[in-house]
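Protocol step 4 of 6: structure prediction from sequence.
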Amino acid sequence: MTADNRANQAKVQLALIMPVYNEAACIATVVRSWHAMLAGLKIDFRFIVLNDGSRDNTLQVLQAMAPLPELVIIDKPNSGHGPTILAGYARAVHEGEWVFQVDSDDEVTPDDFPEFWSQRDSADFLFGIRTGRRQNLGRRMISMVSRMVVHGAAGTSVQDVNVPFRLMRRECLAPMLPCIPGATFAPNLVIAGLAARGGCRIINKPITSRP
């Protein structure tokens, strides 16, 4: 079913957002694993995959998966990871009571999601804390600076400020989006800061990270 055919459907419990760029080698496995986990939890969900102008055959792989129930495939011109996430959030807050964002590179698996979902009534934002990460020096420096900036501006209530594993209450996320320019490079940093400064109920939970 195409995105247009679903546009007027009622809200679901969860809208999952996954930005994708040049992931033809693994995207089918990643999408199927997340879809199976959510279906197994009996969640009323919508799985929104945004292809950010991939140059390989990612789109063709995704289109072959179109018959999967709940799957929505959005093909868009390349704009970068941050703007693609924001485009996904803009749609998700109109479709899901909860919004979950995860990347498509298989760094984090669905295994930790059921525990997040079980604790949602106690929080407005649930952020993963990646454990066991192996980063090169450049990425470690970026992560360190990101933490310093967000913690300096908003405190330390969000521990992994740019984690691509975050469950967010729609009523709290939606008012933040108009404050974030569409071309923002790392909107998840901004959202973490706004959640901390806004006094939102925040839970940080360790998740497994792999290369």
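Step 5 (inspection) to follow. Residues 22 and 54 are 5 Å apart (CA to CA).
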